[in-house]
Amino acid sequence: MSIQNKQIAVIAVDGPSGSGKGTICQLLAKELGWHLLDSGALYRLTALAARHHGVELDDVEALEVMAEHLDVQFKASDSGKAVQIILEGEEVTHAIRNERVGEDASVIAALGPVRRALLNRQRDFAQAPGLVADGRDMGTVVFPSAELKVYLDASAEERARRRYKQLISKEPGASLDDILNDIKARDARDMNRAIAPLKPAPDAVRLDTTQMTIDEVLQAVLDEARHRGLR
Ligand code: DC
């Protein structure tokens, strides 16, 4: 098992679905000119690859092999603005974001062998000049020596409202109640699993974003980075 590359600065950002991690991490990486690890995408990709290959979500051995040998490329688009995700030669950038894949990802993420198989792949993202790592166990397991650990949270109701706003233009039938129930179920699974459960690292800076704008959260994290000499 490779250990964290201590030469490279890492900002680890953890938190539940809808806490704003994804957006904040993208903005942070852009602002600092650092690499970005979207670790949730790796769990989603493993889940999607399992579906493509007809692997059941309780077939731990086959899922471990799938995670170990995941054939994935993260390609900067021509405009350089977005990242395209290619799984086994097929573009899946949008396909991995649907709710079903998210559910499947949350199920397989509870399996120790799958998590171990993805560990080194995640640590390999730590390249100069630095890495912003987005996930559930970035500060606790994957990058325990990160220079800055942030735990973003928001009430389940606010997170459901945010998800509903994103979805409603694409899925006019989306229901706020259903989304809230899904978020609560996902939280319970991610927080109560035996291995690498979602929880703040003891030394994480905790931010409740319920009443904060994206820019306020970004500035708060950048201030913490500045205090640690990371800017
Ligand atoms: O952040 P996301 O919604 O893309 O993550 C999808 C699922 O993957 C989430 O329910 C929990 C899991 N996950 C995890 O267990 N550990 C991570 N570091 C990232 C995601």
Automatic annotation (TrEMBL):
Q: Do the record's keywords include ATP-binding? A: yes
Domain annotation Cytidylate kinase: ranges:
11-226
Principal cellular location given in the protein's record: cytoplasm
Q: Which reaction is this enzyme known to catalyze?
A: dCMP + ATP = dCDP + ADP; CMP + ATP = CDP + ADP
Q: Does the keyword Cytoplasm apply?
A: yes
Q: Sorted alphabetically, which keywords does the UniProt record give?
A: ATP-binding, Cytoplasm, Kinase, Nucleotide-binding, Transferase
EC nos: 2.7.4.25
Q: Where in the cell is it found?
A: Cytoplasm
Enumerate the InterPro entries for this protein.
Cytidylate_kin, Cytidylate_kinase_dom, P-loop_NTPase
Q: What does the record list as coiled-coil region(s)?
A: none
Q: What Pfam families is this protein classified in?
A: Cytidylate_kin
Transmembrane domains' residue ranges: none
Q: Which GO terms describe its molecular function?
A: kinase activity
CDD domains membership: CMPK
* Annotated binding of ATP, by residue: G15, P16, S17, G18, S19, G20, K21, G22, T23
The UniProt entry's sequence similarity note says:
Belongs to the cytidylate kinase family. Type 1 subfamily.
What name is this protein filed under? Cytidylate kinase
What is the protein's species of origin? Marinobacterium sediminicola
Q: Top-down, what is the taxonomic lineage of the species of origin?
A: Bacteria, Pseudomonadati, Pseudomonadota, Gammaproteobacteria, Oceanospirillales
